[in-house]
Amino acid sequence: MKGAGGAEATPVPPSEGRRIAPVLGRPRPDSRASARTGWLRRVAGRVAAVATLVERLGYTADARLLIITCENLGCAHATNVGAYDVLRAGVGTSASLMVPCPWAREAAAAYRGEDVGVNLTLNAPFERYRWGPITLAPSLLDGDGGFPRTANDLWDHADTDEVRRECRAQIERAILWGFDVNHLGTQLDALNARPEFFDVYLELATEFELPLRLQSGDSEPAYGFPFRRRAAEHGVLSPDRVLRPRTAEVLEQALAEIEPGVTELVVNPAIETPELRAAYPGWNDWASQHELLVDAASIPKLLERTGVTRIGYRALRDAQTASRA
Amino acid sequence: MKGAGGAEATPVPPSEGRRIAPVLGRPRPDSRASARTGWLRRVAGRVAAVATLVERLGYTADARLLIITCENLGCAHATNVGAYDVLRAGVGTSASLMVPCPWAREAAAAYRGEDVGVNLTLNAPFERYRWGPITLAPSLLDGDGGFPRTANDLWDHADTDEVRRECRAQIERAILWGFDVNHLGTQLDALNARPEFFDVYLELATEFELPLRLQSGDSEPAYGFPFRRRAAEHGVLSPDRVLRPRTAEVLEQALAEIEPGVTELVVNPAIETPELRAAYPGWNDWASQHELLVDAASIPKLLERTGVTRIGYRALRDAQTASRA
C-alpha cells in the first residue's frame, strides 16, 4: 500500500495541524505558529498538508466551495435517471455508486465520464426490494440471503475481513466497469460510525488514494473516536462538513446558506416510478429533490449570487494525490 | 426421500403406460389392454398411476384442462403487479416465484394464498438489471457477482451440488415466507435441458412431493433424454404440454385452441413501468399480455365456449400426493 504514513512522518501533533499557518497563504496572527517559522521552512513541503482544505484546492481561505453529491446511483432505475439528470443539468457535481445493487450495471452502461465515487454498500434497507454482497461473505448476510437492513444488524455479525474484501471488490468492480472512481462513501454510515469498521474504510481510502465522505467534525464527540483526525493523519481528504437535507424545501434553504470551507450537500434525486413508490415510503422527497435540482437555471444563479463555487470530488482526489507526489 | 421408486416397482414398461385402460374409467377398445385384464386387477392400486393425467384429476379422458401460469413473480415490481392482477382477475390460475430476485419479498408480502410454485432461478438474463444466488455458490456466479446471464454459461461451470443447495434454499425460503408452494419450474429451461441438472430437478420434486413444469413430450428427441418418462417413473406429475405464446395475439389464439389433456399456458403479465422498459427490450409483449389477461370478462367466456376448464397446480400436487398415500 502506498502512502499510509505521510502525515505520521511529520513531527507535528495532529491536533495542532489546523493552527499552523499555511505556507502558501497569508500567515495568520498565531503566536505559536510564528514561533515555529524556522521549523516551518524546513518541512515546507509537508506543511502544505495542514493548510485548510480550500487553500489546498487553490482558493483563498474564505472561499465557499460546494460538492453536490447525488446518492443512490445504481440503487434503482429511478435513482439512476435521477442522478444522471442532475449531473447532466450541471447542478450536481458528483454521484456515489452502489455497486451491489440490481441497477448498478445500468449506471455503468450510462456513464459518460461524470464525477463518480463508490458508496460502499453493506446494507439493503428496503423491506420489499433487496440485494446482497458481490463476494462470498456469510457474515454480511441476513437470514433472507441479502445484506441486513440496518447498520446495527450489520455491526452485530459482520466480520471485518469479509467487510474489507467485499468493499475492495466493490471498488475494483466499479473501476473495471470503467468508472473513474474519485471518492469513497459509506451507506447508512456503516463504516464511519464504528472504529473497527472505520479502520477498513480508511485503509481502502489510503490504498486506492481516494478522499472519504465523512460525517462533519462536530459529530465526532457523539461518535466517540476522532475519525477526522485519523483520516488527516493518513493524508486522506474529506469535505469540511456535510449536509443531508431531506425535503426539497430544506435543500433549497441549505443552498442559500453555504458557509466558507468545503461543504458536501448530499441529495437523493429520483424520478417518480411505480417501483420507487413501492420500494421507499419517502419516495416523494426524492422526487421533489429531483424536480428542484434539474432546474439548471435557478440553482447556479442562486449559488453565483451567494459566492459559492461548485466543485467535484476529482478536485479533492487530485489535491490528495498531489500531496503524496 | 419418499416414493422415489413407485412406478419402478410396477412391472409395466413405461412406454406402454398410456395404452392401458384406466381402472376407474370406461375400458378402451384396446386388445392388448383387454388381454391383460387379470393382471390389471392384481396391480389395480398401482395402475391408477398410469391413467391419463386428466383422469387422475377426476375428469373424463377427453377433458380440456388449462393451467395459466404467470411467470416472473418476484422478478420486478412490474411483474409482481402483473402476476397478481391476472391471478386476482380470475384469469390466471398459477404463478411461478423467482426467489432470488430483488422484488421477491414484495411478492411474499402481497401473497394472499394464491396458487404459487417456485421457478428455480439460476440465471439473471437482463443486461442492466441483475441478481444473484441466495446461498454461497461460487460456481453459480458470473464475473459480475450475480448469476450468469445464459443457461449455457451456467451449464459451463455450475457445480451440481451447489445447484442442489441453491435450489433447495429457494424452495425452503418460499415456504418460510408463507407460500403454499405447489410446483417447481426452471427458469430458462436450465434444469430441464441437461440430464445432470434434471437429476437435481427431479430429486427436489420427489423430496418436496411437487409436480414439475416440464417441456412438452414432443421436445424429448431434441433434448436427447427421456425426461418425461423419468419424471413419471418417480411419480412426479407434469402438464401434458406447455405453450409459451410471446405476443398477445398468439396468446389469444392459443386460448381458442386448447386441446384435450392438461395444457400449461405460460404467460408473462407485467404493467408498463420505466424500470421494465429499461430492463427488458421485449417489455411491450409483457404489457400487452397483461392488458389481454386482466380482461376478466372475455377470456373466461371464450374458454367456457370452447369447453376448457381452468385448474391450478394445486390439483396436480394433490393428485401426485394422493398416489403416494
What does this protein look like?
- The structure is a homodimer of 325-residue chains.
- With 325 residues, chain A is of the alpha/beta class.
- Chain A has 2 domains: 1-51, no CATH class; 53-322, Glycoside hydrolase/deacetylase (TIM Barrel, Alpha-Beta Barrel).
- Helices cover 40% and strands 12% of the residues of chain A.
- Chain A has 16 helices and 7 strands.
- In chain A, strands 1, 2, 3, 4, 5, 6 and 7 form a 7-stranded parallel β-sheet that branches.
- In chain A, helix 6 links the parallel strand 2 (94-97) and strand 3 (116-120).
- The longest helix of chain A is centred in the middle third of the chain and has 17 residues, at 160-176.
- The radius of gyration of chain A is 20 Å and the shape is globular.
- The two termini of chain A are 15 Å apart.
- Mean pLDDT of chain A is 87; it is low at 1-49.
What's the structural blueprint in terms of helices and strands?
The structure is a homodimer of 325-residue chains.
Chain A: H1 31-35, H2 37-42, H3 44-47, H4 53-56, E1 64-73, H5 77-88, E2 94-97, H6 104-109, E3 116-120, H7 151-157, H8 160-176, E4 181-186, H9 195-208, H10 220-223, H11 227-233, E5 241-243, H12 248-256, E6 261-267, H13 274-279, H14 283-293, H15 298-305, E7 308-310, H16 313-322
Parallel strand pairs in A: 1-2, 1-6, 1-7, 2-3, 3-4, 5-6
Concise synopsis of the structure shown:
The structure is a homodimer of 325-residue chains. By secondary structure, the first copy, chain A, is of the alpha/beta class. Chain A has helices spanning 31-35, 37-42, 44-47, 53-56, 77-88, 104-109, 151-157, 160-176, 195-208, 220-223, 227-233, 248-256, 274-279, 283-293, 298-305, 313-322; strands spanning 64-73, 94-97, 116-120, 181-186, 241-243, 261-267, 308-310.
